[in-house]
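Per your request, structure below.
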């Protein structure tokens, strides 16, 4: 049985949410324009995580393509989750 790319991304986001929230981060899946830092401009990450001393931009990469938005990461850590197979 094959899992769809959307289902795989959703499952990955759920797993990431559990992981980050277990470490007291605020996790925002598919953040709205108002929740995205201005320096990201038109870039739309899959999720953001805010901890006491750390802020993380999360992008899920599924085989077949990565968004090629160039961004200047200012005081953020970029977390790329690369999924090997569907």
């Amino acid at each position: 049985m094959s899992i769809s790319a959307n289902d795989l991304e959703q499952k990955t986001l759920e797993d990431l949410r559990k992981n980050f929230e277990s470490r007291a981060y605020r996790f925002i899946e598919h953040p709205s324009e108002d929740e995205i830092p201005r320096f990201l401009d038109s870039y739309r990450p899959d999720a953001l995580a805010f901890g006491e001393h750390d802020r993380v931009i999360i992008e899920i990469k599924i085989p077949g393509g990565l968004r090629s938005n160039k961004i200047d990461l200012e005081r953020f850590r970029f977390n790329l989750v690369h999924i090997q197979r569907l």
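DSSP finds one helix and four strands in the chain.

Regards,
D.
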